[in-house]
Amino acid sequence: MSAFKAIVIDKNETGQTVELRSFDEADLMDGDVTVRVSHSTLNYKDGLALTGKAPVVRRFPMIPGVDLAGIVETSSHPEFKAGDAVVLNGWGLGETHLGAYAEKVRVKGDWLVPLPAGLTAEQAMAIGTAGYTAMLCLMALERHGLRPDRGPAIVTGAVGGVGSVAVALLARAGWHVVASTGRPQEADYLKSLGAAEVIDRSELSGAARPLAKERWAAGVDTVGSTTLANVLSMTKYSGAIAACGLAGGMDLPATVAPFILRNVALLGVDSVMAPKALRLEAWGRLARELDLGKLAAMTSSVSLDQVSQAGREIVEGRIKGRVVVEIS
Ligand code: NDP
């Protein structure tokens, strides 16, 4: 196959174009492993790239898609050979390096991890960067020494991709999960994933006081801005919040009061450049700890020609759970 199907983002004088078209293998970027992609997924960042709403794409033309699962076709990397099932999350895929919404990619073997035992390619992409980031957040809270006996855990943006997986993982780990959402009609969905309480996100959206009534010991925040400021102000003494998202904004209108008066910690979580050892640990734990029935219940799928529309929906906050992109 010297040409293959891909979603291609390009830029002209009038703005950004997105089309599903044929792409020549000769135009792929450098890398020591070529992978036949079977599945990808839709993350918030992919929505930003597809809509051009934020400058995620750093070169044009670009094939978007930050996550892939597939089979190695050719490799000169010592750890991978033809036929190996692999997963890739981040490392600039779909931003600076031609990405996963394509039947083929050429990448650095150092970026790949083996498909975790016990997961299919489709399940790995149902998890995707969103789910792997939710696990990185849980691991950060645990590294901080937090355990479920310390009190409840809050998850913001709970109906979204990171949020849905975080609810399921924290509940499975024994936490009393408080799920915050702007979609109260999804309360039964959140409870089916393991949420013990569902609160309306308007409780966390007003201007934050320096300190408010202590409500939770831990949290996973996917929203940022005033939501994170409120979450911090309501965190119990010596608690911690893992912050990974900006769905509500990149600012943080907070005070230092929770840090200096309640010993609260703010734990930053990045998935894109996370070192390989951390990725392998996160994927191993996801394969063992995430309930695959719950994963299936939070997942829908689209084809490559439906992904642009789905990208618009995710930036409008209208996607529930996770979306797999079926490629080949
Ligand atoms: P989703 O769109 O699936 O989820 C985001 C959720 O946030 C929405 O479903 C909604 O939840 C809530 N939300 C959206 N807009 C607002 C708003 N204006 N105010 C308050 N809440 C809002 O995205 P993902 O789960 O894929 O990603 C979530 C965030 O995490 C994104 O900002 C993304 O960029 C970031 N991220 C960061 C990573 C990292 O490496 N640090 C990796 C992966 C994601 P509800 O309807 O329940 O209120």
Automatic annotation (TrEMBL):
SMART domains listed in its UniProt record: PKS_ER
One of the entry's Gene Ontology molecular-function terms is: acryloyl-CoA reductase (NADPH) activity
Q: Where is the Enoyl reductase (ER) domain?
A: 15-325
Record's SUPFAM superfamilies? GroES-like, NAD(P)-binding Rossmann-fold domains
Note the PANTHER family from the entry. Answer: ACRYLYL-COA REDUCTASE ACUI-RELATED (PTHR43677:SF1), SHORT-CHAIN DEHYDROGENASE/REDUCTASE (PTHR43677)
Q: What is this protein called?
A: Alcohol dehydrogenase
Where does this protein come from, organism-wise? Microvirga aerophila
